[in-house]
């Protein structure tokens, strides 16, 4: 029986959702200046330069015309000023944001970047004004999530309780993502526990029965396990985008994400190939897939060159998705498998997502089992969950005698890791591990304790 990998979950980026900037006919220079300042502010935010971030976002707001972009820039400036320790300046610019119409009151109230402002006398008035703006807003803001679980994975030194304490997380409470604060916590973990790697991420569900929920996942690698960080060299080239396909894919993804955030994505998410990110059912998306179907088969070598040589990870990821439009699933798998260990996690995610969907649609193994089993040990959850789903689909397609022959070796290599994954709270990280354990064992346990006891009863075979 096949099972479907959940795709109604995304990782949030830094800050708030941004409205597209549009220049009025009489003010192109001001709009261009505001966009440039905002880009400089984002760069400062990414480098944790909060002084410059606050100054640039504030300047962007002052250069912009009245409207949501102006209010958004002032809001972002307030967050950076607060992180820089300038609470009075943060209050002043935050007032300008709500006076300018900022209305995402829940985001404001639970934004950890503004936590330093909560004790100040002006805080309650700012929240009240944002709620008054919300009452007359033209559309609802993107929902604020509720934290449903915290997972710590990969370290023998740091457990879930330690992570919750270090990050101040409360399950069952609203949570707002902050890339900057997550980066600070990663650095603290590496320093305090001598980790070779620490990554804090947040996944949100925006569809189906888990809509509005979030899970924080902290991936870690102990110094003695640094071999898990083995990847391909960083590409340095800039090959030609064949027929503009990479740019067109990124246009598609941008529009798809906008529709998802607005709750406007059509129910019909079907597509013509095995790997379907969000489909083409919405009228705004319908024109993209015919172009991919027509052009990709003639550009397979050029797209593979982009995946192998392009320095920009976003373009490499786009090439991986486009290779799903190869004439056969076998060719898609053959071209993608060498890039399972791309140096960038977002590209690995794209490669593994396409391979997983491609193998799910197949009736025979298309990918090397050893390469997939090795990928289950990669450092991030987005690596592991797709590699484990892919492993499950491969096991489905192995002849019974071949599955029996592989069982002992896979349990030696992956048994402990799969049992650890079966204890996770995020379903897309836990469920594939449980499925593989069921396939290898022939048993139907559900809890991590049951699986741990089962694994302890298995014969210990050397080699």
Quick tags:
463 residues, alpha+beta, five-stranded mixed beta sheet, 19 helices, disordered N terminus
Structural notes for this entry:
With 463 residues, the protein is of the alpha+beta class. 52% of the residues lie in helices and 8% in strands. It is built from 19 helices and five strands. The protein has a five-stranded mixed β-sheet with strand order 1-4-5-2-3. Strand 4 and strand 5 form a beta hairpin. Helix 1 runs antiparallel to helix 2 and helix 14 runs parallel beside helix 16. It is globular and about 70 Å long. The two termini are 32 Å apart. The N terminus is likely disordered.
Cα Rg: 24 Å
Summed up, the helix count is: 19
The helix content, as a percent range, equals 40-55%
Q: What proportion of the residues form beta strands (DSSP E)? A: 5-15%
The average pLDDT is: 91
Which helices and strands, and how do they pair?
Elements: E1 9-11, H1 28-46, H2 50-63, H3 68-83, H4 87-99, H5 105-110, H6 123-135, E2 145-153, H7 160-167, E3 174-175, H8 179-193, E4 195-205, E5 213-222, H9 245-261, H10 288-295, H11 300-309, H12 313-322, H13 329-336, H14 345-360, H15 369-375, H16 381-397, H17 400-421, H18 427-441, H19 448-456
Parallel strand pairs: 2-5
Antiparallel strand pairs: 1-4, 2-3, 4-5
């Amino acid at each position: 029986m096949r099972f479907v990998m959940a795709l109604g979950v995304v990782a949030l980026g830094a800050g708030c959702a941004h409205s597209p900037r549009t220049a009025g006919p009489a003010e192109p220079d001001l709009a261009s200046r505001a966009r440039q300042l905002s880009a400089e502010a984002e760069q400062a935010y990414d480098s944790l330069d909060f002084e410059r971030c606050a100054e640039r976002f504030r300047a962007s707001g002052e250069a912009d015309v009245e409207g949501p972009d102006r209010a958004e820039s002032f809001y972002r400036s307030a967050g950076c000023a607060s992180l820089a320790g300038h609470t009075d300046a943060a209050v002043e610019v935050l007032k300008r944001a709500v006076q300018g119409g900022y209305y995402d009151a829940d985001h404001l109230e639970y934004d950890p970047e503004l936590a330093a402002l909560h004790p100040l006398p002006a805080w309650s008035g700012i929240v009240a004004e944002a709620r008054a703006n919300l009452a007359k807003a033209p559309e609802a803001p993107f929902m604020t999530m509720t934290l449903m679980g915290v997972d710590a994975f990969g370290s023998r030194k740091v457990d879930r309780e330690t992570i919750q304490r270090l990050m101040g997380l409360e399950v069952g409470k609203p949570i707002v993502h902050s890339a900057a604060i997550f980066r600070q916590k990663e650095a603290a973990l590496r320093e305090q526990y001598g980790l070779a790697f620490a990554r804090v991420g947040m996944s949100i569900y925006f569809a189906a029965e888990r809509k509005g929920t979030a899970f924080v996942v902290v991936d870690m690698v102990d110094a003695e396990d640094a071999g898990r960080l083995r990847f391909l060299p960083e590409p340095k080239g800039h090959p030609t985008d064949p027929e503009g396909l990479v740019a067109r894919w990124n246009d598609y993804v941008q529009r798809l994400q906008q529709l998802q955030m607005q709750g406007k994505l059509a129910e019909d998410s079907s597509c013509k190939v095995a790997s379907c990110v969000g489909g083409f059912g919405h009228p705004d998306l319908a024109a993209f897939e015919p172009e991919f179907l027509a052009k990709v088969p003639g550009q397979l070598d050029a797209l593979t060159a982009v995946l192998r040589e392009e320095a920009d990870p976003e373009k490499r990821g786009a090439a991986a998705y486009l290779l799903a439009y190869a004439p056969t699933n076998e060719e898609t798998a053959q071209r993608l498998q060498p890039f399972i260990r791309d140096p960038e996690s977002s590209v690995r995610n794209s490669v593994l997502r396409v391979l997983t969907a491609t193998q799910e649609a197949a009736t025979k193994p298309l990918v090397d089992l050893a390469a997939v089993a090795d990928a289950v040990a990669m450092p991030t959850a987005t690596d592991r969950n797709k590699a484990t789903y892919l492993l499950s689909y491969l096991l489905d397609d192995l002849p019974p005698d071949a599955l029996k022959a592989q069982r002992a070796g896979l349990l030696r290599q992956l048994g402990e890791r799969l049992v650890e994954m079966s204890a996770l709270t995020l379903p897309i990280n836990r469920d594939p591990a449980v499925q593989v354990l069921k396939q290898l064992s022939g048993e139907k346990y559900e809890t991590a304790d049951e699986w741990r006891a089962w694994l302890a009863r298995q014969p210990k075979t050397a080699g």
